[in-house]
């Protein structure tokens, strides 16, 4: 059942309307658990649109297996999606920087307050993001270390490739996820794919993971495909690749590859002189989980990220080199 969550009058006889689709079990008891799937906070992030479609398709195809409530919010920022704009058009705002909002505040603060009121109390919220147009991200969950104890066990079940636990100092308190977690509504932030595109294989992967978490929570009783066990970044170094200068970046490895320290990952080319301006090599050994997709780069541009080996893996490698195993 499609419901209007928030509706605000705009100039020239228009409205800002945010809607959700609530899927209920055939015979509700009034004591069902509820999961919320949220996406479209940034108008240039479209990976979640396919996830919403595919999840709803699966639920409607086998309604008898649904035992809880599923709320799907495909477009928190419909104006941004319509205009292919990351933020909220006209207001010059990043929607994910004004939560939890204020009922009596300016228009957009009132809008996000209404969203918070509708989402709070869910047994789980999955907040789906894509990267921007410049970078491709391997499916991952990002978690504030302050909520890791609660959220990491859930993140391990949602079929992503790795879980990135961030230091609390790097986490913005004005995001939807932080605001919901702070009031006791468990919220997982999923980042995957690339801006303005849909990566279908990532979408299928995440839908399988959402169904798996729903099954764990007692919301779903249907079949679930194989779910991968993610790497958790707690004791792992993250290596950053940055451009030393301007040029055209051509990557030499695929996202998701395991690389060794010193491996050639790509080159920055000068199309005017025919020279290679920079050979980009891996600063550490590990998994390439972010890769530059947009080729034009400048000094300091992010080219990729590598998730390093854990302390135990490093120790095992050292022992192997020493002939101990």
TrEMBL record:
Q: Which UniProt keywords apply?
A: Hydrolase, Metal-binding, Zinc
- The Succinylglutamate desuccinylase/Aspartoacylase catalytic domain sits at 33-216
What is a GO molecular function of this protein? metal ion binding
What cofactors does this protein use?
Zn(2+)
Q: Which domain of life is it from?
A: Bacteria
- Return the protein name: Succinylglutamate desuccinylase
